[in-house]
Design goal:
With 123 residues, the chain is mostly beta strands. The protein has 2 helices and 4 strands. A 4-stranded antiparallel β-sheet has the order 1-2-3-4, with no helix packed on it. The chain has a domain of 67 residues: Surface presentation of antigens (SPOA), CATH 2.30.330.10.
Amino acid sequence: MSESETEPAAAPPEPEAEMKLDEFSPEEGALPESIAEDKTAGDLAPVFDVPVNISAVLGRASVSVAQLLQLSQGSVLELDRKVGEAIDIYVNNRLVARGEVVIVDERLGVTMTEIIKDGDGQA
């Protein structure tokens, strides 16, 4: 085939049948109540070794770049929390609890004082 001749373009593949979300009722695919009630913590064993990131946030501050560049050793950065106010505890960037800072064997720790249920916390 010469450079001036062009190959006909291949026809695009036919789209597969699309599934609509409303084709299934909410009950379809759910576990029967008898099975769901029999679940125990032991059933979660396959995920016990999955690593998660935990963050304890003392507070937040907003500063301009100029203010940031002026910070040096010994500078104090004022946070948006008051002394004694609960800190936020995040697991994989999701607010899951609030707690208090404690000292454990000369290291900092956190005592959880409130567990945040789905949708309760303002992250």
